[in-house]
Amino acid sequence: MKNILLAGALAALAALPLAGPAAAQDIRVEGAYAVVANPMSGAAYMVIRNEGSTPDRLTGAESPVAKRTELHGHEMSDGIARMRAIDEGLPLPPGGSAVLERGGLHLMFMGLAAPLQDGETIPVTLQFESGARIALELRVTPQHAGEIPPPAPQNP
Ligand SMILES: [Cu+2]
């Protein structure tokens, strides 16, 4: 009887939503790469999947190469696409994903300490509402590489 109760308690514990860094194991980042935008800024693209059972949210990112790393989207105004910072972050429902791609959502590196160089690798840490943090190494890929398949998936 006691063992059955214990088993029940353990099952209940296992069903609790994971909080904090443990949730990082539920987040998968694929095809991440960076590009040079201009000497003072760069951008990064990737697909972020939530393979867990609890909602999460990408809230920000940071990189030692830039003063600020912002999450950006585009919005049309007067027929012109302008970038805007997405302060509310990107929702990642269970089983859902956020797609950061050319012409759409992206991470923007603002105020580079030095211009990014094609072929170099830069560290970026993604921050999530759950408290999870995922460290990535992004290869800077030439802008004209659009037809080339993105680099192999990274799963830190
Ligand atoms: Cu931008």
Structure description:
With about 160 residues, the chain is mostly beta strands. It has a single domain (about 20-145), classed as Immunoglobulin-like, CATH 2.60.40. It has one helix spanning about 1-15, and strands at about 25-40, 40-50, 55-60, 65-75, 80-85, 90, 95-100, 105-110, 120-130, 135-140. A hairpin with a 4-residue loop joins strand 9 (about 120-130) and strand 10 (about 135-140). Mean pLDDT is about 85; it is low at about 10-20 and about 145-150. The structure holds copper (II) ion. Copper (II) ion binds next to strand 8. Copper (II) ion binds near residues 43, 72, 83 and 108.
Layout of secondary structure:
Blueprint: H1 2-15, E1 27-38, E2 41-50, E3 56-62, E4 66-77, E5 80-85, E6 90-92, E7 97-100, E8 106-112, E9 121-128, E10 133-139
Antiparallel strand pairs: 1-2, 2-7, 2-8, 3-6, 3-9, 4-5, 4-8, 9-10
This protein binds copper (II) ion.
Short description:
With 156 residues, this protein is mainly beta. It is 9% helix and 49% strand.
CATH architecture: Sandwich
- First-last Cα distance: 42 Å
| Discrete helix count | 1
**Number of self-contained structural domains:** 1
Q: What's the CATH topology name?
A: Immunoglobulin-like
Principal-axis shape equals globular
Instruction: Output the structural class.
Output: mainly beta
Mean pLDDT: 83
The CATH homologous superfamily is named: PCu(A)C copper chaperone
Describe the biggest sheet? 6 strands, antiparallel
Radius of gyration from the CA trace? Answer: 18 Å
Strand content: over 45%
SSE ordering: HEEEEEEEEEE
